Amino acid sequence: MEELKQRIVQEGTIKEGNVLKVDAFLNHQCDVGLFDRMGAEWARLFAGKRIDKILTIEASGIGIACVAAQHFNNVPVVFAKKYQSINLDGEQYATSIHSFTKQKDFHVIVGKRFLNKGEHVLIIDDFLANGCALNGLIELCEAAGVVVEGIGIAIEKGFQGGGDSLRERGYDLQSLAIVESMDPATGSVVFR
Ligand code: 5GP
């Protein structure tokens, strides 16, 4: 998506450790008009698919997913919640996810009543790097017996490989911008 690529080039900054900061429009301040056009683009890319629900993960995925849902017939958006530690009471699907940006593990849960067996789910998230977050969300979907119809990502860092391994596993993964390389010294970003 050309508009998103331009925003990354104009407003993104590259931090140590392969972190791309886009908090001027995606991760801290939210450009809702951009989110709306991202939602329209995913609706085009996933046209014809049955989507009963959108699944994302807190915090940055929520805003994007809620705006995108308006392009999918206002389907409900469910977000996985992160906890440092949890006491499971049997009412949640749970897994553990390693956070790339925070370099620690989180327990992640979704209430069982919000993912029903046989539903068709679109997963949406802001970033895809190594794929830990998505693999965790897919695990929750498998536990619930829902069908992952597709995965919509705003920014995929292609050089970290998480996206390619999901495509090899057969998932319909649509990233709106795929960063192939980025250089913290010069600030240059190359797209796939
Ligand atoms: P993964 O689990 O695929 O390694 O990383 C994806 C998650 O880590 C995303 O949900 C996002 O919150 C965070 N993340 C990974 N790389 C970046 C990055 O370069 N910039 C930002 N802002 N977040 C990132």
What does this structure look like?
The protein has five helices and ten strands, in the order αββαβαββββαβαββ. The chain is α/β, with parallel strands linked by helices and 192 residues long. It has one domain (34-181): Rossmann fold. The strands form two sheets. Strands 5-6-4-3-7-8-9-10 form an eight-stranded mixed beta sheet, with helices on both faces. A two-stranded antiparallel ribbon has the order 1-2. Helix 2 (32-45) packs across helix 3 (60-69). The model has no long low-confidence stretch (mean pLDDT 96). The structure holds guanosine-5'-monophosphate (5GP). Guanosine-5'-monophosphate binds next to strand 2, strand 7 and helix 4.
Task: For this entry, give a set of tags.
192 residues, alpha/beta, Rossmann fold, eight-stranded mixed sheet, two-stranded antiparallel ribbon, 28% helix, 35% strand, globular, binds guanosine-5'-monophosphate
Major sheet summary line = 8 strands, mixed
At CATH level 3, the topology is: Rossmann fold
State the shape: globular
Q: What is the name of the CATH architecture? A: 3-Layer(aba) Sandwich
Number of helices: 5
Mean pLDDT: 96
Helix content: 25-40%
Strand content: 25-35%
Could you tell me how far the N terminus lies from the C terminus, measured between alpha carbons in angstroms?
A: 12 Å
**Strands in their spatial order, largest beta sheet:** 5-6-4-3-7-8-9-10
Quantity of strands, as a count: 10
Could you say which small molecules are bound to this protein?
guanosine-5'-monophosphate
SSE class = alpha/beta
The first-level CATH class is given as Alpha Beta
Run of helices and strands: HEEHEHEEEEHEHEE
Radius of gyration: 16 Å
pLDDT under 50 segments (min length 5)? none
How many domains, in number, for the residues?
Answer: 1
Pfam families: Pribosyltran
Enzyme class: transferase
Function: Converts the preformed base xanthine, a product of nucleic acid breakdown, to xanthosine 5'-monophosphate (XMP), so it can be reused for RNA or DNA synthesis.
Pathway: Purine metabolism; XMP biosynthesis via salvage pathway; XMP from xanthine: step 1/1
